[in-house]
Amino acid sequence: MDVGPSYVMDDVDIVNINQYSTLTMSTWVIEMPTILITGGHKGLGLETTTRVAQLGGFDIVLGGRNHSEVSSVAHDISAKYGANVRTVDLDVSSLASVRAAAGLVQNLVQDGAVAPLQALMLNAGAQFMGPVEYSPDGYEKTFATNCLGHFLLLNLLLEDIRPHGRIVFTASGTHDPDTMDGKMVGKAEEPDAVKLANEGKTGKPLSPGKRYSTSKLCTIMYAYELDRRLRATGSSFRSIAFDPGLIVETSLARTAPPLMQRVARTGFAKRLVKTLGVTMGSLAFSGDALARVAIDPAFARASGKYMQSRNGQLIETRSSAMSYDIERARKLWADSETLVGLPSKAQGA
Ligand SMILES: NC(=O)c1ccc[n+]([C@@H]2O[C@H](COP(=O)([O-])OP(=O)(O)OC[C@H]3O[C@@H](n4cnc5c(N)ncnc54)[C@H](OP(=O)(O)O)[C@@H]3O)[C@@H](O)[C@H]2O)c1
């Protein structure tokens, strides 16, 4: 295979992010490390998986709960691009499933079926429009799916990532109540893990929109808190939050009424929300951007940052004021450790 020059991921500053150009073969590392992506068989994640496979140079592990669907996508991508694509059964809303999946990933690496992990892309996500539902562990399902499962997965796999590896969290502009993205979905509330995990058990639950936007606020706070912990230990890993912008073509809103889904996908609706100031992404651009953030050396300095796909540009921007609250993030992390059954580690430990 004709490969481009090798880069150590840390050697390159973030330059010309706004001069965005499509990721090319000359910008990736030539060893064959592994990218693990959750929700990589559908929507945004599928675009990203396809992009990484097209580039070549990476083994790919798809983590998903629908075995036949995920396997079929893995087979298709393998056949089309010649990539080594493996799958692990993973329901991120179930802590038992996450533990089992982490073990399966470790086995794949130990058996040499895939190369060591280079990037963990915590991308799976869901919105639950109806009444409050609970995960197999008894936690509110939005928080369990978007937050706790990924939190456990990353903690279980962190020591398996190779030097200069990256952890990329798929976030959302909806987390910021001061933006139109946040206002349209529902204002994010306190990132209180215990309260969010038990939402609806007593008193009136948060609206589905608020449950989603708050879960994305927590996602970003995990990314920043992880970055602080990595820096404190001198780790070479990078922890980055990525907002793909609004992409109406995915199945994220699948629990919304069908008519609402159809209307949201019309050209008129897209123009309207764009005019109102919503951050617009697209499947092709945001999928490529997510791949870039995970593997392009240009993003080696993006740890602790919020990268956003906005109207065809990939930019570093500020997330909400609350997302930078260090004390809240520490508490969120510590409470999440308790909720998923991990021993508590003080920051910097
Ligand atoms: N679309 C947007 O406008 C937008 C904007 C900002 C952020 N995002 C974020 O982007 C990410 C991808 O979403 P998308 O828009 O591509 O939606 P999507 O098409 O619905 O894809 C979501 C992916 O997550 C997986 N997933 C959901 N629940 C899961 C679970 N319990 N266990 C394992 N996998 C699960 C889905 O798998 P199944 O097929 O098994 O359900 C699917 O592969 C999400 O984190 C979302 O919050 C999306």
From TrEMBL:
One Pfam family hit: adh_short
Molecular function GO labels: oxidoreductase activity
Keyword Calcium: no
Transmembrane segments: none
InterPro entries registered for this protein in UniProt: NAD(P)-bd_dom_sf, SDR_fam
The family this protein is said to belong to: Belongs to the short-chain dehydrogenases/reductases (SDR) family.
Descriptive protein name: Short-chain dehydrogenase
Annotated source species: Billgrantia endophytica
